[in-house]
Amino acid sequence: MWNCKYCIFNSEKRGEILKHYRLKHGGHTKIVPFPCPHQDCLCTFKSISNLQVHLSKIHAKEHSEHASKVPPLVFKCQHCEFSEPCTETDFLRHLRSRHLRANENIHCPYRGCTFQTRVYATFNSHKSKTHSENDRRMLKPEIISGNSEGNDNDEIEPVSLDEVEIEDSEDQLNEESSDFVIQLEHNLAGIFLKMQSILHIPASSVQNIIQELTEIHKLSFPLVLKSVSTVLSKHYPDVDDSLVTEVVNAVSESNVFSRCCDTGGCLSTIKKRNSFVLNEFPVVMPVEYMLPGGEKPYVYVPIQPALQAMLNKTDILDKALTVQECVSNGYTSYRDGYYFKENSLLNGDEFKIALGLYIDDFEVANPLGTSRGKHKMCAVYWVLANIAAKYRSTLHSIQLALLCNTSTVKVYGYKTIMQPLLRDLVHLEQTGLYIDQLGATVKGTVLYVSADNLGAHSLAGFFESFTVERFCRFCMASRNETQHTEVGTGNFEPRTVDMHNRHIEEVKQDPSLSKLYGVKGSCPLTDALQHFHAVTGYPPDILHDLFEGVVPVELCLCLSDMIEKKYFSLDSVNHAIKTFGYTFSDKTNQPQPIPKGFASKGSIGGNGHENWTLLRLLPLIVGDNVPEGESSWEILMLLKDIVELAVASKHTDESIHDLGCKIAEHRELLQSTFPDFRLKPKHHFMEHYPQLIKAFGPLSDVWTLRFEGKHKFFKKVIRESQNFKNVPLTLAVKHQRMMAYYLDSSSFFRPSVEMEKVKTAMVASFPGHVQQQFHQIAPQLNTVLVASSLMVEGIKYSADMVISAGSCSGLPEFQQISQIVAVNSEILFVCKKMSAWYTEHLRSYELCSSHFSTLCVVKVSELNEVSPLSGYIVKGRMLVTPKRFIFC
Predict the structure, then answer these.
(1) Does pLDDT of 780 surpass 90?
(2) Burial of 875 (0-12, 13-18, 19+ CB in 10 A)
(3) Minimal CB count within 10 Å: which of 41, 69, 340, 715?
């Protein structure tokens, strides 16, 4: 039995699975690739043709063995002495080649059918239309009998014609044919939707393409007529021209594209296609709201139907429920933070909806001069926090809630703009949302709001200027105190819920107290919701605090000092940055040269990805030029340590304590080396990280990095459409149509494991100890699948990457991937063992291997850190520098 890996469809025939993939899942290969139907095979493919090649090369033997398990049946021909054990296909081939080719009259071999013909093509047409499903049980009992061993399960008892409901059979066939046509129409509409919402082709261009293709189809009618006439003339020398025309017309009318896209078809115009999408796809359209005074409108995408559309997809709900059942040691998700545990609504055994919001302003057109800010938008996104961070980080998992001009927010404020969102959130918290898949009403609330510091303070009611005396939303520290006292000393009183509520009430009575408390007003979310508060709901943002804050500032400060000390020049640094041999993911995020005027600006600039890569690879780029003990260099290396710990996807009490010690050491060295340097507010925010990890869980789960990537979709839409008449509505409609396409797909997420460019290898070709580990999984295994690359939960692995598994003397062990092997459904890395030792000056590991290094086998589950590393050769040494802290 072959089973579809995306739905409940199954069939005894592999060909039916391929047909099912084409029809049901073929329109979504950009999202969901075609998986191999063999249950133990993890390979995926971008097209059916690639899958078929894989099946013929890799699984030909398994297919023949599968077919051989079907007991042979004896077929008896009614027109000759043929009587042999064979398959239904072989028997039909006999009828065609032995009798129809000889122009002999034959009777249809299927039950209840009186059709007869002597024409080869007519028989094929009848077979495909009336008996499209190959099923030996539907053959006449006088034609087929059980196997020689007398398998009772395959013997077919004679059935009288009275027992066969011919009309019901015809109705069923008509119903199946109708369903097939409906599915094809849906697939065709999905292609047009993909062209507009995913490929960003304007609707007018799609209409033009449809019209041109329809016209070409009409112009090809004479060619089809000639071809059909030629074929029929071979069998009917005196065939009537009217019959040929009728056949061609029937063929043309059965063409789904022609029927749907020709004049009057259900997909023939832009309006009809939009109507079809609204009726047949799970689209949640935005609602436009007008403000008093005729100001620019804003749009809101109702969160309740959007949540229902998501949670009624089985794969999304399954992942949400899986997280609900996870129990971990340490801090691996928000569920381990004490803010979640203190939330009386969310913390419990019952499934509750936890939402993560994000708010930010962005330019859709990046204009210059006087037009700057004209089309600056304020966006509110949300994610279903119940699913694991690795799944909700995909851009189509991030949903749109609100979109409006930033100028509108400044005039009317967040409370007015967010009113429809707040109304739905209150309903979710107090009444709940009915989920069909669960058959129950589920309550939920907002767990956190991710934002940069400006956005967080603006929405939460704190001062947006960081030059005020009380600028921190986490504690009551003053500006001057932060320059002399570190957060870890415990001298700063943390903000609490009761304290903040008291401050809000006092500020309402006496607005002059706002500067004393650092509070301007209340948070709209806090006012509306019972289980969300401004003090506990706004986590820090690593992206803006570190990668676009502390890191570029300190790189500027320390590099200027080392250039002044002539360890290297700016030109030599930039030359090294340009010529460094970046590999794998570092190629995408490679840093840009440092601008010449960086010292006067006080920052090297650059985006977060580039600054992260530069700080991580700087030891390999220029580290050998700096003498050991240089304080400026040590500041950067301590900052590198802090970054690795801050972005870690899991934490223990020991790693949190280590982070606090690193931050304190870094601060002390920074102030002693540069006594005139004033710490930035983001330095102070960074000092709160150890305590905030205990409150929110890993900070990389709640940062804004992936949300920032969502802006690219809207920028691309406005660039392609060039429609500025009603920007919020234009962007929101296009986004919701895009989400309808993804929600309509077979699976909302890509497969957990994807393998491509797979070939077979003999187990005997591997060393003996590697063979033994293969045989522990599959004792009778003779061949394995070897892939050139592998994707596991969105992380790519390929040969020559360095991974870490195991430990020795408290340090992680490293291996270099030689081959990626699949043994049944188990992924194994066949690796070279590497000797490793830590180089303190470069904060990197030096690896060493030899031609005689033994191979080892590593499972994905055994990795210390899932992110693979790049091994760089620097002056004859192989060095690797971690992205995140490696727990071992």
Answers:
(1) no
(2) exposed
(3) 69
CB atoms within 10 A of CB 436: 10
The answer to whether 827 and 811 are in contact (CB under 8 A) is no
- Crossing angle of helices 570-579 and 551-564, in 10° steps, is 120
In whole angstroms, give the CA distance from residue 801 to residue 815.
9
Cβ partners under 8 Å of residue 689, min gap 6: 540, 646, 659, 663, 699
Alpha-carbon distance of 315 to 5, in angstroms, equals 12
CB contact at 8 A, 646 and 433: no
Amino acid (one-letter) located at 197: S
Strand partners, 753: 792
Q: Is the dihedral of CA 252, 257, 258, 260 positive or negative?
A: positive
From the list 52, 50, 34, the residue with the least C-alpha distance to 42 is 34
> CB atoms < 10 A from the CB of 685, how many?
26
Q: Which helix (H) or strand (E) holds 795?
A: strand 795-798
- Report pLDDT digits (tens) over 814-830: 999 999 998 888 899 99
Domain 753-880 has CATH 2.30.30: yes
Contact yes or no for 438/525 (Cβ under 8 A): no
Residue 149 is predicted with a pLDDT of: 40
The three-state secondary structure class of 753 is: strand
Question: What would the pLDDT profile of 514-533 be if each residue is shown by its tens digit?
Answer: 989 999 999 999 999 999 99
Query: Counting beta carbons within 10 angstroms of the beta carbon of residue 96, is it exposed (0 to 12), middle (13 to 18) or buried (19 or more)?
Result: middle
For CA atoms 329, 335, 337, 341, give the dihedral sign: negative
Q: Is 148 exposed, middle or buried (0-12, 13-18, 19+ CB in 10 A)?
A: exposed
CA–CA dist 462, 470 (Å, integer) = 9
What's the DSSP call for residue 98?
A: I
d(CA 139, CA 86): 14
Which pair of structure tokens corresponds to residue 562?
């080392």
d(CA 60, CA 63): 5
Please write the tens of the pLDDT for every residue from 94-116. 887 778 777 788 888 888 788 88
pLDDT at residue 852, as a whole number: 61
**Whether the Cβ atoms of residue 73 and residue 85 lie closer than 8 Å to each other:** yes
Q: Where are the domains of the chain?
A: 2-68, 73-153, 171-280, 290-461+522-539+722-744, 542-701, 753-880
- Extract the tokens encoding 106: 């034959």
Helices and strands (H and E) in the chain: how many: 35, 27
Task: Say what the alpha-carbon torsion angle 403, 409, 413, 419 is, to the nearest 10 degrees.
Answer: -20
| CATH code 1.10.287 for 2-68 | no
Which of 270, 284, 303 lies closest to 737, judged by CA? 284
Tokens of 719: 């660039």
| CA–CA distance, 96 with 77 (Å, rounded to integer) | 12
